[in-house]
Design a protein that fits this description.
349 residues, alpha+beta, Alpha-Beta Plaits, MutS, DNA mismatch repair protein, domain I, DNA polymerase, domain 1, 4 domains, five-stranded mixed β-sheet, 14 helices, binds magnesium ion
């Protein structure tokens, strides 16, 4: 099982300001603009200010009406960026794989470090302490088997929170939630789901894959997994990805070889597009096949001369699929390329 940590600083801009200016501590502090500024919006507000109903992105004028005794200051972005750099440095020291999400947030993949801690709570407390020691501000931390749950968890006990989600806790956490809490459910999808009578994750869980696909297309297939706490996306460091892949979950399980070949072709085309856009060749092609009983196999093949076109990727993928005995129906098919090298470098081989 993976150990994914989401770290999110609490009211970051306010916390940085209050660290330098003790008079701000414990007070309703609003960063965004002076009280009478007409056009500014709230960039960050302290938890004391939130008690008055002040929220991020609200016009300063409205915040001033809600909280007349608040302290209103303009943002000092160069300062926040400096503290953010220190923060992201600490993340790099803590975790082998870090994916920064914003100025004050990151995913850490701690799977290979788990043995260093007696339990996940201790891991979480250690991360919180190291962050506080480095930048003097508190963080909320969520720890879970996947990114989406870790992010959800870090938000549950803000500020200064720590929430560990174990597989056995997933249903209790997810089922009562509004579907809006699921990754990728915005205004539009939520409204569509409400029309269909789906309001909570528990409602969503009742729906079949076919039903979700029929009403919501691709998003529906994604939601089928998310509402079960399934999210296989890796924690990805910034820069070019180390592998490129696309996969499809079918609304109904497939078995006929020509149909599977057609799907492999579509996936290969999408992979080739991204590969070409990044200006790279791949020297390894892999496929993933998940059968109707959720049994999942992967196969990979090295191509020392490198592949780049959809046809080349498709060829390798077909060969890999041929090496498998398709005795059961297929629920998911994926095509990936890895061991990526830039064009210019290939010339050297
Ligand atoms: Mg934050």
């Amino acid at each position: 099982m993976r150990i994914i940590v989401h770290v999110d600083m609490d009211a970051f801009y306010c916390a940085v300001e209050a660290r330098l200016q003790p008079a701000y501590r414990g007070r309703p502090l609003i960063v965004g603009g002076y009280k009478h500024s007409r056009r500014a919006v709230v960039a960050s507000c302290s938890y004391e200010a939130r008690r008055y109903g002040v929220r991020s992105a609200m016009p300063i004028a409205q915040a001033a009406r809600l909280c007349p005794q608040g302290i209103f200051i303009p943002p000092n972005f160069p300062l926040y960026r400096r503290v953010s750099a220190q923060l992201h440095n600490v993340f790099q020291q803590i975790a082998p794989v870090v994916e920064p999400l914003s100025i004050d947030e990151a995913f850490l993949d701690m799977t290979s470090r788990a043995h260093l801690f007696p339990d996940l709570e201790t891991m979480g407390m250690t991360i919180k302490r190291r962050v506080f020691d480095a930048v003097g501000c508190t963080a909320s931390v969520g720890i879970a088997p996947c990114k989406f749950l870790a992010k959800l968890a870090s938000d549950l006990r803000k500020p200064d929170g720590l929430v560990v989600v174990r597989p056995k806790d997933i249903d209790a956490l997810l089922l009562p939630l509004s579907v809006r809490k699921l990754w990728g459910v915005g205004e539009k999808t939520a409204a569509r789901l409400a029309e269909l009578g789906v309001h909570t994750v528990a409602d969503l869980r009742q729906k079949s894959l076919g039903w979700l696909n029929q009403h919501l297309g691709k998003t529906g297939l994604l939601l089928y997994d998310l509402c079960r706490g399934i999210d296989e996306r890796p924690v990805e460091p910034p820069g070019l990805p180390k592998s490129i892949g696309h996969e499809t979950t079918f609304p109904t399980d497939l078995r006929a070889r020509p149909v599977l070949s057609g799907e492999l072709r579509k996936l290969s085309e999408r992979v080739a597009q991204r590969l070409q856009r990044d200006g790279r060749y791949a020297r390894t092609v892999s496929i993933k096949v998940r059968f109707s009983d959720f049994d999942t196999v992967t196969r990979q093949r090295r191509t020392p001369n490198g592949v780049r076109s959809a046809a080349q990727i498709m060829n390798a993928a077909e060969t890999l699929l041929d090496s498998l005995e398709i005795r059961r129906s297929v629920r998911l098919l994926g095509v990936y390329v890895s061991d990526l090298i830039p064009f210019c470098q290939l010339e050297l081989f």
